[in-house]
Amino acid sequence: MLIYGFHPVHEALRTRPHEIEKILIVEGRRGKRRVQIESLCKRHGVSMSEVADSALAAESRGVHNGFVAEVRSVSGRTPAESTDQDLVVLLEDIQDPRNLGALIRICDGVGIGRLLVRDRGTAHVSPTVVKASAGATEWVDLERVTNSAQEIARLKESGYWIYGADASGKPPWEIDLSGKVVLCFGGEEKGLRARTRSICDELVGLPMRGGIGSLNVSAAAAGLLYEAIRQRSG
After folding, report:
1. Mean pLDDT of the chain
2. In 101, 105, 152, 218, which residue has its Cα 20 to 30 A from 129's Cα atom?
3. What confidence tens digit (pLDDT) does each residue in 1-20 have?
């Protein structure tokens, strides 16, 4: 599999250099970022080659910023000391890989304990997802689940309160998000599945005061999750 873009390649070299086959850098690329990548390659004994920009673009099929890594697998790692094990996120039907990457980046920034992803209907980790996450896929483990309702039932038995993201829901500052909390986010077009909505303890959403009626799912996730962090650190 290919990882492309400076930040994803840099994180892969820092966290799992043993899984990297080789690094490709566009010909003539100079500057601080090249020095950082080259230094990590030398430190870990990773092969590095220069290739033409056209060849790199064909390999990555996206905006590569001059850096591509060939890796054996994609396996996130979450440093337990920096995560909140009582804060869980569940995603379902996130089909746009850029949205999934952005959500993973937000989850890493917030330091959630677990990221659950409904397998059917949700994009899989791909080079586009890795690029959009800016390397956060190296730090966040995605736990694939087959049935959202069954997973929610298990979490409720473990003492979690389940909140579903929906534009019509209560503002997050009117809900206690300081305990064992699961925040559920649905797909780009239809939001949460009807069954998932029906078993949530409460729906939560960000009020819209302008001319449009809703936010992109990753933008909404950022707002809700950082409000949860504000409450939990208060």
Report:
1. 87
2. 152
3. 777 788 888 888 887 888 88
CA distance 46 to 162: 44
Output the DSSP codes for 113-160: EEEEEESTTSPPP-HHHHHHTTTGGGT--EEEES-HHHHHHHHHHTT-
Q: Tokens 């043993």, residue? A: 18
Beta strand pairing call for 112-118 and 142-145: parallel
Q: Encode pLDDT of 118-160 as tens digits.
A: 988 898 888 888 888 887 888 888 888 999 999 999 999 999 9
- Whether the Cβ atoms of residue 149 and residue 204 lie closer than 8 Å to each other: no
Closest CA to 20 of 8, 28, 30: 8
Give residue 203's Cα distance to chain centre: 22
Contact 208, 167 (CB under 8 A): yes
3-state secondary structure of 219: helix
Question: What are the φ/ψ torsions at residue 157 (nearest 5 degrees)?
Answer: -65, -25
| 3 close to 37: Cβ distance less than 8 angstroms | no
Return phi, psi of residue 130, to 5°: -60, -45
pTM, full prediction:
0.71
